[in-house]
Design brief:
About 75% of the residues lie in helices and about 0% in strands. The protein is mainly alpha-helical and about 280 residues long. It folds into two domains: about 180 residues, Up-down Bundle (de novo design (two linked rop proteins)), CATH 1.20.1440.60; about 100 residues.
């Protein structure tokens, strides 16, 4: 069983792990695009060279070509949630491709036409066909030839495409097989996602606990500062009160002195005036 920590999980924008595998854009795969060519080529081939009625080969070939394309699309879409479904449907597509390949080989044999890969004097022509098929994957690259090619040319082209689709799908399935062994299926991914989420939650809780402890320490520090400021404020008030009392006392003393001086002046004045009066008399 794969280690949950080794499973490569896709994540949402907020970091939450997902059990879904990364989507495969199957329309970009060469073997899917070649399978689309095979569907259209086979339809035209059957319309041009096989009886319209009374021959089951027509339906079998068209359905086999269609099965390749549709099972690739369905398998890779369902593969986001299920390795098993993906591998199963890709296996069906591979089998349908082999069935189509056999139908084209049978046609060449029944009509005594050349299989270019097996004919020495046509080897050079076969190599050119292979080179073209390797570098061209889309319907637009072939469609213009559908009404021009002979049945031998169309059959050999289809055979070449079938071989390339088969080889590419074999390589792709081997890759998927390794991924399944290393990462497991949806159950293993669900387990890995839950464990990852629990680990993330523990980290969040630990971080929050650290933040709470830091806030508590800060609050305690601020409370001590407030207590010190309150103590300093009481002493200052006491000192200010003492100064105020001294000022009042000084004022009274000053007033007394002033009163004394004033009284003395009045007495002196009166004495002077009295003396002058008596002298005049």
């Amino acid at each position: 069983m794969p280690n949950p920590k080794d499973i490569n999980l896709k994540r949402y924008n907020d970091g939450t792990p997902s059990v879904m595998r990364k989507a495969t854009v199957y329309t970009e795969l060469h073997f899917y695009r070649k399978s689309d060519v095979l569907v259209q080529l086979t339809k035209v081939f059957c319309e041009r060279f096989l009886p319209k009625y009374g021959d089951r080969t027509v339906d079998q070939m068209v359905q086999a070509a269609r099965s390749v394309k549709q099972n690739i699309a369905e398998g890779l879409t369902d593969g986001q949630t299920s390795f098993e479904t993906e591998i199963k449907l890709l296996g069906i597509a591979k089998g349908s491709n082999q069935e189509l390949l056999e139908d084209y080989h049978d046609y060449l044999k029944q009509h005594r036409l050349n299989d270019w890969a097996m004919t020495e004097h046509l080897r050079q022509r076969y190599d050119k066909l292979l080179a073209y098929c390797r570098t061209h994957n889309d319907l637009a690259d072939y469609e213009r030839f559908f009404v021009q090619w002979t049945d031998e040319e169309m059959a050999n082209t289809a055979i070449s495409l079938c071989h390339m689709v088969d080889k590419a799908m074999t390589t792709f399935l081997e890759k998927r097989d390794r991924e399944f062994v290393e990462e497991g299926g949806v159950r293993e991914r669900m387990t890995a996602a839950r464990l990852d989420m629990r680990g993330t939650q523990k980290q969040i809780i630990a971080q929050q606990e650290q933040e709470i402890a830091a806030l508590k320490a800060r609050i305690a520090s601020l409370e001590r500062e407030i207590a010190v400021l309150k103590g300093s404020g009481g002493d200052g008030l006491a000192r200010n009160s003492g100064l105020a009392g001294n000022s009042r006392l000084g004022g009274v003393s000053g007033d007394s002195r002033l009163a004394g001086v004033s009284g003395g002046s009045r007495l002196a004045g009166d004495g002077g005036n009295g003396g002058d009066t008596e002298t005049k008399q």
